[in-house]
Write a structure and sequence with these properties.
Blueprint: H1 19-31, H2 39-47, H3 56-67
Amino acid sequence: MEPSSEISLSSRKEIVLTPEQKTKILFSINATPENPPSLKDLTKSVFDKEFDGRSFESRAIKAYLATLNIKPKLNYNLK
């Protein structure tokens, strides 16, 4: 048998946010609605560790925010 070159979707890691983590995200955003925290700051506050926007943790937060029609603030500047 030849090894498969396709990646199985079941091998992908998925992060499911707890109700407490969702509450923490909403509290952080509502604390300063005129200047909401960046995705990096949200990820750090929820998971107590720094991750970039490509991490599974950040993707879980982005997916949750999308269900609320909220676009996360990003940390980079476009040139």
